[in-house]
Amino acid sequence: MAIQVCVRCGEKTAKMEACGYCNRMLCRNCVKSCRKPSRTERLCICKDCWSKMETRKKYKAVEKKVEEEFEPRDFGRPRGRRRF
Ligand SMILES: [Zn+2]
Ligand SMILES: [Zn+2]
C-alpha cells in the first residue's frame, strides 16, 4: 500500500479517507466521522467540513442504513450501538 501525505495536517499514512464534501484525501486524524448509507457507499466528513454548520447538517441528514460510525479520537471508549 502506498504511503500518502495528508493535505490537511501533513501526516504520512497508508490509510486515507476521502471527505465526501471537500473531496480531499485525509488521514484518520483529520476525518471526524464516517457513515455507510448503504453496503456499497461510504461517506466521511473531515473536521473542517464538520465545523461548517451547513455541511454538518447535510452529513447528519444522511440516513444510516448500515450502522458504522467511528470517532478517531475515541477508540478506547466505544459509544452507541455496536454491531458485534
Ligand atoms: Zn491529517
Ligand atoms: Zn471536508
Explain how this protein is built:
The protein has 84 residues and is α+β, with helices and mostly antiparallel strands. It has one domain: Herpes Virus-1 (2-Layer Sandwich). The chain has two helices and six strands; from the N terminus they run E-E-E-E-E-E-H-H. The chain has helices at 47-50, 53-61, and strands spanning 4-5, 12-13, 16-18, 25-27, 31-35, 43-46. A two-stranded antiparallel ribbon has the order 1-2. Strands 3-4 form a two-stranded antiparallel ribbon. A two-stranded antiparallel sheet has the order 5-6. A hairpin with a 6-residue loop joins strand 1 (4-5) and strand 2. It is globular and about 30 Å long. The chain binds zinc ion (ZN) (2 copies).
Total domains: 1
Query: CA-to-CA gap between the ends?
Result: 28 Å
Radius of gyration, taken over Cα atoms and rounded to an integer in Å: 13 Å
How much of the sequence is in beta strands? 15-25%
Classified by CATH, the class is Alpha Beta
**What structural class do helix, strand and pairing data support?**
alpha+beta
Instruction: Please bin the fraction of helical residues.
Output: 10-25%
Order of helices and strands: EEEEEEHH
What profile does the largest beta sheet have? 2 strands, antiparallel
| CATH fold naming | Herpes Virus-1
Provide the spatial order of strands within the biggest beta sheet. 1-2
Q: What CATH architecture do you see?
A: 2-Layer Sandwich
The residue ranges in which pLDDT falls below 50 over 5 or more consecutive positions are none
Mean pLDDT: 84
